[in-house]
Amino acid sequence: MVCIAAHSPPGGRLVRADGTVERGFEAVRDAFAEGQAQDEGGAQLCVYQHGKRVVDVWAGTDKLKSRPYTADTITILMSCTKAVTAVCVHMLAQRGLIDYDAPVARYWPEFAARDKGAITVRDILAHRAGLMGFDEEDEIFGPNLFDWDRCTSSLAKMAPWWEPGSAYAYHALTFGYLAGEIVRRVSGKTVGAFVDAEIAGPLKLDLWIGLPAEQEHRVAPHIVPARQLTEDQFRALFSSLGLDMNSPPVRAAFNMATNGAEGLNLINTREAHAAQLPFGNGITNARSLAKMYAACIGEIDGVRLLTRETMERARESQNEGLGAPTPLMPLAGPGPQRFGLGFELPRAIEPMLGAGSFGHGGAGGRMGFAHPESGIAVAYVCNSMLWDGFSGPDQRWLGWTKALRDAIGI
Question: What is the set of active-site residues?
């Protein structure tokens, strides 16, 4: 049934949500529309339940191209891409081609250099390999990130920044090259080619890591925040926390923070869309991302991506008893990320649908996840970079996640 909701909350603008919902999910649509009232951009929300699409709505504008945000709009996923990459690894593992507890060097021999021979595939997927950035002397930043061989060679020859397996910290950029090179070595395909052949193709998804030129016109560029801390402000912040600026992981965190605006502008370019950056440049819509998650927890259109056994392994916590490496402890905060095998697990600022959920958030507010117990798979895709990933959940999520819980009775 085609349905339209329009809401104008106090102090907000009139928001029109187009799309379809099944009976019983109307409140999810309405809450989505209300959540977009303070958003100058656009967004899509899609929900599957037991393999059936029950919510498929969109609202707002592609501001930078002065056009409506529609069902056909596609947007960069940022770190939601990591979950797509993880699915590739899991599919190879369930075929017996990857052992989670095998050394990465079994599949990528050069990786054993500098005392990395014991690092396992599990360590990579759980962000505990001690390789959360590149050695500074390799000068891998900006457009150099598009050079796959340069990036993977740098990681292969570097030494870990802490004892692998003893601590964990988000491998924001390097996860994509580490997991992606394992996929390439084992399958003979790049991650982008694997996604095309094994995920997007069978499920008929508009999902790419490495966007074809003929799809570029559909992309809604993200809106870079006007206000960001300066380098001096970040330096003062890091100093106030007592962080050692001579520590490689601290310097990596600092460099990522201070290059934020530059990186966000770079990833809006055609060159960045065309590259294969399995940590953050997947491009899709909510409809396709939700369907991928639905196929991770059940069969849809005759396709199931992950077996029940693989899915259960994927959402097992890998960080119990571990914390941040010593140099980064002041940055960990009270609610650090929790990881399964390549997926984030629920926490206070990314609650998903609570215990049992697994998925991944993305910078600015993108979110995809599944909750097997309820048969729910969800994707929220947006082009406004509103969520900071630290201070709490994205305010745009709160209404529709509550309405979804009410609709399914959890």
Answer: 79
Q: Nearest Cα to 351, choosing from 371, 321, 331?
A: 371
- CATH code of the domain in which 266 resides: 3.40.710.10
What are the tokens at 97? 């081609």
347's CB contacts (< 8 A; 6+ apart) are 335, 336, 337, 338
CA dist 253 → 9, 61, 182 (Å): 38, 33, 25
The pLDDT tens digits for 315-328 are 999 999 999 999 99
The pTM is what?
0.95
pLDDT digits (tens, 9 = 90+) for 92-147: 999 999 999 999 999 999 999 999 999 999 999 999 999 999 999 999 999 999 99
**Location of structure tokens 């119990």:** 320
Residue 181 C-alpha from the chain's centroid: 18
**Kind and range of the H or E run holding 47:** strand 42-49
Burial 78-90 (b: 16+ CB within 10 A, else e): bbbbbbbbbbbbb
Q: How far is CA 395 from CA 99, 158, 255, 337, in A?
A: 39, 40, 28, 19
d(CA 158, CA 395): 40
Inter-axis angle of helices 248-258 and 231-240, to 10 degrees? 140
Exposed/middle/buried for residue 255 (C-beta within 10 Å: 0-12, 13-18, 19+): middle
- Residues 76 and 73: their CA atoms lie apart, in Å, by 10
Q: Looking at the DSSP assignment, which residues form a beta bridge with residue 361?
A: 367
What Rg value do the Cα atoms of the chain yield, rounded?
Answer: 20
Range of the domain at 227: 2-408
> Phi and psi at residue 319, in whole multiples of 5°?
-120, 10
Which residue has tokens 């399995």?
Answer: 278
Torsion of CA 380, 363, 339, 207, to 10 degrees: 50
Number of structural domains, the chain? 1
What token pair was written down for 33?
């529309």
For residues 122 and 342, give the distance between their C-alpha atoms in angstroms, rounded to a whole number.
Answer: 9
